[in-house]
Amino acid sequence: MRAVRLSVVTAAATAAALAAVTGCTEKGSSGSDGDRVISVTATDDKCEVSKKEFPAGHIELDIANKGSKVTEVYVLFPDDRIVTERENIGPGTKQKVTAEVKAGDYTIACKPGMKGDGIRQAVKATGGTVAKRDPRLDKAVAAYRKYAQEQADATVPLAEVFAKAVKDGDIEAAKKAYAPSRIGWERTEPVAESFGDIDPKVDVRADGLEAGQEFTGWHRLEKSLWQDKKITDADKTLADQLITDLTDWQKRVGKAEITPTSMANGAKELLDEVATGKVTGEEERYSHTDLVDFKANVEGAQDAYELLKPVAKENDAALVTELDKQFAALNTLLDKYRADKNSYDFTSYDKVTDAQRKELSDAVNALAEPLSKLAAAVVK
To answer: Is the pTM of this model over 0.85?
Structure first.
C-alpha cells in the first residue's frame, strides 16, 4: 500500500455520487477538447486548477509539480472515494491522467509529501449527454468487476487460515500463510483503495500511520511474527479484526465504481505500488515477501490491460506492442526469482542484491511509462 490513504468522511454524501462514474463512455454536449483539459499546478502549499467547471465526460488532468516535494493528485467524490489518482509526481516533473466523470461535484486534491488529506479545490462537471456505448468496453468492465470479486472471494478463506494460525499461537504456520493471504488483495488493490476506509485498516505500514491512527492489519501482524517473534493476545484480536475488515471489502467489491479509464489508471497505480513499496523492500520489511506482492501487482495490472487491449490496439497499435513487450520482459525477469513458474515461492527479498533491485526497478519503469498512456488510448 502507499504510505497514507484519504479516508471516507461520510457515507451520507454518496447518494448523488454513486452514479458519478459508470462503465459507459460519456461525452459532453458541447465544448472542445481544450475544455476537457484541466491544468493542475501543485506546489508545497498550493493546488491550483485552471478551471473549476468543465464538461462531464472524459477529462484530462495536466499536472505540473512545481514544489520541492513528491506529490500525489486525486479526483475525489464528495465522500472522498477516489475517482482517479496519480502518485509519485516528483518535483519539477509533469504527469497526465485521464478520468471519466458524470455531472456533479468533485474535489481535486494535491498531497505534497504524499501525507494527510491534501490541499483541495472544489470543482464541478456540468452537462453531458451519453454517447453510444462501446460494447467491448462494457464487456471489459463487467469482466474486471467479476475478476475483482473473484479475488476478494478467494482472499478471505486464505486470510482465515492465516488468522487461525495467529489465534492458535502457531508462528511458523502463520508465517507460511501470510504471503498467500495477500495475493488477491494485491492484484486488485485499486478497487479496495477506491472505498477509502478499508485500506488503512488492513494494509497500512508503520511509516504510513497518521496521528492517532492504530497500527492494525496484515503488516502489524507481520511485525509480530518476524520481528517480535511472538504472538500476543492483542495480535489474536487483530487477526479477528483483519477478517472482519476483509469481509467488509469482499461485500463491497460489487458496488465499486469501475470504468474503462479507472481500470487503465488502476493498472498504472499497481505499477506505482511496485515502484514505491516492493522494489524498495519497504512493503514487506519484516517478512521480505515483497516479490510475492510484486508479482501479484503485475498480474493485476496485466489482467486489466488485457481486457482493455482490443480497444487500445485499435486506437494505438504501437502502444499495445510496447506494452506487450514490457509486460513480457518484466514477467521473465520475475521468473528468475522462483524455481517453479506456477508457484508463489519467491526468493526472500533480503537476498536480492542492490544490482538486482536496480534491474527490477528499471523493468518496472520501462512498463510504467507506456502504461500511463493506456487510459488515453482507450477513450480516443
So the answer is: no
